[in-house]
Design goal:
By secondary structure, this protein is of the alpha/beta class. Helix content is 52%, strand content 14%. The chain has two domains: 226 residues, Spore Coat Polysaccharide Biosynthesis Protein SpsA, Chain A (Alpha-Beta Complex); 69 residues. Helix 9 packs antiparallel against helix 10.
Length: 327
């Protein structure tokens, strides 16, 4: 049997955390009882710089139920970095890691399907929404448009998948080699190339607390996904600059003909052609320079994605070592 660790990023989840913990402990107990996972499996909560009592609740859960553990980031680093911090921590102890949000909107029972696919040899199993009927019409349209846009930009992404997935230790160790600071895990994980499959599930409504992804944040996350994984937008600017420049040449011929026919205002032709030509050349130049800047941008950032302030698992190990020394 393999050791399973859940990784749950948390940001201001004091209302939701007790419900999440109850559901997770019930699921873990069932899986252990059915001998589907090892008895030393755990749930890792990642406090992403919460401003409420989320960390205090995690500490209480850890003291009362050994199956729960947690890490606290030094400051808020965003959902993707918090998720990465949890996976990098969990891989030191777990054979397989399941990541999911703390709001219980992802159906926890889909883990059974994850384990079935894992038994078939998959290193990565994606949780995929079977329906978006609970979403508003606007959200359904924007989601579908966004996935199609990413596909056209050359991004390999799993449709209707968020960050609910199973990954083997081998897959997480491979992910560690990707040193991007601007993370978009939904696009990075498929790039690993290991054997993968999907499990469909119905997404639930949030039971407590507020969504951490309002429209503004969702738009920011969408732009992050595009700019982190593709330089095609820069190439589109280059193409646009070239097209505008070619149009300017056509306009130059057109206005020259008008000038020869004496149908233009003196000086107007020169002004118009100059604006078109210079505008096209500037866009073309910006696009070419941007092409190189885009490549440099993707390669040169090496700031840490996260810093861990407190690691309950390591604190327990240190305490046990001190007690052993005293004895």
């Amino acid at each position: 049997m393999e050791t399973l660790w859940f990784v749950i990023p948390c940001y201001n989840e004091e209302e939701m955390l007790p419900l999440t913990a109850r559901a997770l402990i019930e699921k873990m107990d069932t899986l252990i009882k059915d001998e589907r996972i090892a008895p030393d499996s755990k749930v890792l909560f990642v406090d992403d710089g919460s401003k409420d009592k989320t960390w205090e609740l995690i500490e209480k859960l850890h003291k009362s139920v050994p199956m729960f553990t947690g890490i606290k980031l030094s400051r808020n680093r965003g959902h993707q970095n918090a998720l990465l911090a949890g996976m990098m921590t969990a891989k030191e102890y777990a054979d397989i890691i399941v990541s999911m949000d703390a709001d219980l909107q992802d159906d926890i029972n889909a883990v059974d399907g994850f384990l079935d696919k894992r038994a078939e040899g998959c290193d990565i199993v994606y949780g995929v929404r079977s329906s978006r009927e609970k979403d508003t019409r606007f959200k359904r349209w924007t989601a579908r448009t966004y996935y199609k846009l990413l596909a056209k930009l050359g991004v390999d992404i799993v449709y209707d998948h968020a960050d609910y997935r199973l990954m083997s230790r081998r897959a997480v160790e491979a992910l560690e080699h990707f040193s991007e600071v601007n993370l978009f895990l939904r696009g990075l994980v498929p790039m690993l190339g290991f054997k993968s499959d999907t499990v469909s599930y119905v997404r639930n409504e949030r039971q407590a607390g507020e969504s951490k992804y309002p429209l503004k944040k969702m738009l920011s996350f969408a732009i992050e996904g595009i700019t982190s994984l593709s330089v095609k937008p820069i190439r589109l600017i280059t193409s646009l600059g070239l097209i505008v420049f070619l149009i300017s040449l056509i306009m130059l011929i057109y206005f020259f003909v008008l000038w020869c026919m004496d149908k233009t205002v003196p000086g107007w032709t020169t002004t118009v052609v100059s604006v078109w030509a210079l505008g096209g050349l500037q866009l073309l130049a910006i696009g070419v320079i941007g092409e190189y800047i885009g490549k440099i941008y993707l390669e040169t950032k090496h700031r840490p994605s996260f810093l861990i302030d407190v690691d309950l698992e390591k604190e327990d190990a240190r305490s046990a070592a001190k007690n052993a020394d005293k004895e």
